Amino acid sequence: MPNVRQMIHLFIAKKLIPAPTPLSVITDPLVQGKNVSLIRYGDGEWAAMLGYDGGNCDGHSYGGGLGDALLDTVRKPVNALYGMQRFAVKNMGRFINGLITKEKISIPWINAEVLQQANMEGELYPLIKILRHRECVVIGPNHIREAVADLFNPAHFIEIPAKNCFEARDSIEKEILLYGEGKSGVIYLFSASMAANVMIHNLFPILGENNSLLDVGSLWDVYGGVKSRSIFSEQDWSEIIQKNRGIIR
Is residue 105 a contact partner of residue 70, using CB atoms and an 8 Å limit? Predict the structure, then answer.
């Protein structure tokens, strides 16, 4: 039940609350041989854009120009799906709405947790099945390397710093472009915290027309035994993981 402060945020920013979004918005285009990209905005991204001090729950700093870079991604949207996190609207919706109004941002938001919701409900297998039959590149920290190798065996893994990967964005983008030169139909999966938004935005004009760029966040953490979100610790993942792997139908 939202408290009074949260109810005020939700009321003022109710137009930003995304409708339920099915996993098919991601999987259907991929099955049809089309490309789809996803950029997600949670409380950390909005906090950085609003000029907050500190960092997000993973310890990534809001500083170093991140806020301005993130703001540029919504000022000049690309042809991607843009996810809005309900949690962010509930806790800072009044301020998010003010920023969007000020910047004249008109993005049609979907649910930022579309992948995470399917993951937690044991309904991620349609995506996993696709990834097992497509050329995939994972951009993420070392702790997910073995998990994704076991889950769908990506063609390439680009390791990024576990903290403040935004500072290494130039070198990460160069490595992605080096791998992707002359390729098409590749699915790039970003587990790169708030820097993912910036990198997908920067890379889209070069790679987005012929490839898919997906911000998947902490999606793979539980497969490596890392319960990086408090909500991950609230349930037994053993059967859910089996369902997402396709072992239990």
Answer: no
**Residue 139: how many CA atoms within 13 Å on its side-chain side?**
30
- What is the C-alpha separation between 165 and 211, in angstroms, rounded? 23
User: Which tens digit of pLDDT belongs to each residue from 178-211?
Assistant: 999 999 999 999 999 999 999 999 999 999 999 9
Which residues lie across from 156 on neighbouring strands? 137
3 C-beta neighbours (distance < 10 Å), count: 9
Distance CA 22, CA 93 (A): 23
Single pTM value for the model: 0.94
Q: Dig out the tokens for 174 from the structure.
A: 């160069």
Domain tally, the chain: 1
Structural domain boundaries enclosing 84: 4-245
The two tokens of residue 140 are: 């993420």
CA separation for the pair 80, 186 (Å, rounded): 16
pLDDT tens digit sequence for 211-246:
999 999 999 999 987 765 556 556 778 899 999 999
What stretch of H or E contains 38?
A: strand 38-41
Measured in residues, the chain has a length of: 249
- What's the distance, CA 70 to chain centroid? 13
What is the C-alpha to C-alpha distance for residues 40 and 73, in angstroms, rounded to an integer? Answer: 11
Q: Which residue bears the tokens 């649910």? A: 111
DSSP-assigned states of every residue in 190-238: E--TTHHHHHHHHHIIIIITTSEEEE-TTTTGGGGT---SGGGGGS--H
